[in-house]
Design brief:
Radius of gyration: 17 Å
Strand order of the largest sheet: 1-2
Number of strands: 2
Structural class: mainly alpha
Helix content: 40-55%
Distance between the termini: 51 Å
Largest sheet: 2 strands, parallel
Shape: globular
Oligomer: single chain
Number of helices: 6
Length: about 140
Amino acid sequence: MPQTSLPRQQVKQPSSSLTDSPLLPYIVYAKQSGTANNIKNAVMGRFLSDQVTEAKDLLWEACGEEILGTKHSNRRDDPSRTGVEAHVTDFLNALSTLEREEKMPTILIDAYSLSQIPRSHPEELNNIHSCMCLRPRERC
């Protein structure tokens, strides 16, 4: 019996939904059990800086500066933190604000993007990263 693939159907999404970023659902999921520091480390170890800034842009576009405050777009590295870490901190603070204000948007992910979401909790990813750093000739 020949296999046929079904065409992807366009589903009308609620106006307050976010898609197109595997980082969004991962951070929301990770916030349920992980510490902010572990989440930051896991995100910086797993996602590219472009993915972090794209997800941040999506969140601010969907929710607006009225709720989230000013979006700091040009985060640069400084002695106390990297630019990506600053973006992730902004992201975590924004999600906390949305939860507190009860304005959390619905975050959806395309089934084809599920493989991009880490299957582990942030604490587990940090342990894996630490073990990898112990290997000879590996610099972290």
